[in-house]
Amino acid sequence: MPTLNDIKQPIAAEWDTFDALFSSVFQSTDTLLNAALRYVHQRRGKQIRPILTLLAAKTIGCINQATHMAATALEVLHTASLLHDDVVDAADERRGMPSVNRQFDNRTAVLVGDYLLTKSMDCIAKTNNHDLLQCLVTLSKEITRGELLQLQYAYQQTTEEHYYEIIRRKTAILFAICMQAGAISADATP
Predict the structure, then answer these.
(1) CB of 136 within 8 A of CB of 73?
(2) Cα 69 vs. chain centroid, distance in angstroms?
(3) Can you give the pTM of this predicted structure?
(4) Most buried in the list 71, 156, 170, 188, measured by CB within 10 Å?
């Protein structure tokens, strides 16, 4: 079975550029914000979404600055949604470590999540690409709607159809839009 490094191999030369851009989002001169951002950044996951974005762009043509900005914007948006999700779910852990809301508090977690949302918008705005902006907007709406559906069905017997709708909006669309954004950034035709 291929490892994550095997999957990243075709984009290994471009990964450092993405990683530096992504890491730059998690720096601030404000003491509390910087502490929370560093805490979040140190606990990043496998970063499957930016891998898919870069792979899609490379498959279509080439990875460029718009690709890196889109990959960063989408991963930062995903990270922000996790902070908000942990507050909504009153989660104590994320990736085996104390969640941001537990390490700091709910107010800090929500505000850091909001800050990351704006950083995500800033990254996508720098592409000057309306289609990439639309990807980010669509993803934001769908994740939020998925969370609201999950809340709606939290205290009742949910159907298989409802379950699939929730995971489509909270997870599957992330992967689909990352692939779409990668293709768009490489000037793919519809």
Answers:
(1) yes
(2) 12
(3) 0.94
(4) 71
